[in-house]
Amino acid sequence: MVRKYIRHPADVPIEVIAEQKTDSSKEQLLDISYGGLCFDSQTRLEKDFRVQIRLKVADAVFEVRGQVVWCRRKADHFEVGITFGAEDEANRVRMLEQIFQIEKYRHQVLKTEGRQLSSQEAAFEWIKKYAASFPGGMRFSSMP
Questions:
Q1: What distance in Å separates the CA atoms of residue 58 and residue 10, rounded to the nearest whole number?
Q2: Could you state, in order of their start, the residue ranges of all structural domains in the chain?
Q3: Residue 97 has what pLDDT?
Q4: DSSP run (H or E) holding 26
Q5: CB-CB neighbours of 76 under 10 Å
Q6: Residue 62 has what pLDDT?
Q7: 103 close to 58: Cβ distance less than 8 angstroms
Q8: For the chain, percent helix, then strand, then coil, each to nearest 5?
Q9: Contact between residue 68 and residue 48 where contact means Cβ atoms under 8 Å apart
Q10: pTM of the predicted model, to two decimals?
Q11: In the CATH scheme, what is the code of domain 8-87?
Q12: What is the per-residue pLDDT for 6?
């Protein structure tokens, strides 16, 4: 199977709220791409369920909506694939991909160089070094 978008590993906790259910669950994000994401779940989710995903990255909370495209049993849990139909949701996820890479860079610099960077400092450095080679490129006019 050829993927339309590159998947970026992202081992972070997420909150999943299925529109068909009244409760939410804490799950583990596995990877994310422009077109969707995959996460580990203790609960089986039906294909076509609409879900809201909340995750915290750095100091921001992001929310995106998607739809379950597959759910597979994996030992004692399930892996769930979500797709984003609306372009604004996909663009929001694209921004998350970039933030994950910047946070990964910030932690790498601390570990390998001993420099402690703020998220903004890491973003400026990462953009200067890696933005051009990020799949699909990055278009930043400025960072907040």
A1: 13
A2: 8-87, 88-132
A3: 74
A4: strand 24-32
A5: 6
A6: 80
A7: yes
A8: 30, 40, 30
A9: yes
A10: 0.64
A11: 2.40.10.220
A12: 45
Q: Are strands 24-32 and 77-83 parallel, antiparallel or unpaired?
A: unpaired
- Locate tokens 């597979």: which residue? 72
Q: Tokens 């259910």 — which residue?
A: 21
Under DSSP, the state recorded for 60 is E
For residue 140, give both structure tokens. Answer: 């930043």
Residue spans of the chain under pLDDT 50? 1-9, 137-144
Nearest CA to 104 out of 74, 65, 130 is that of: 130
Would you say 104 and 43 are in contact if contact means Cβ atoms under 8 Å apart? no
Copy the structure tokens of residue 19.
């529109």
- As a whole number of angstroms, the distance between CA 4 and CA 136 comes to 12
Question: Between the CA of residue 28 and those of 10, 79, 80, 126, what are the distances in Å?
Answer: 9, 10, 10, 26
Tokens of 137: 């490129």
**Token pair for residue 70?**
């597959």
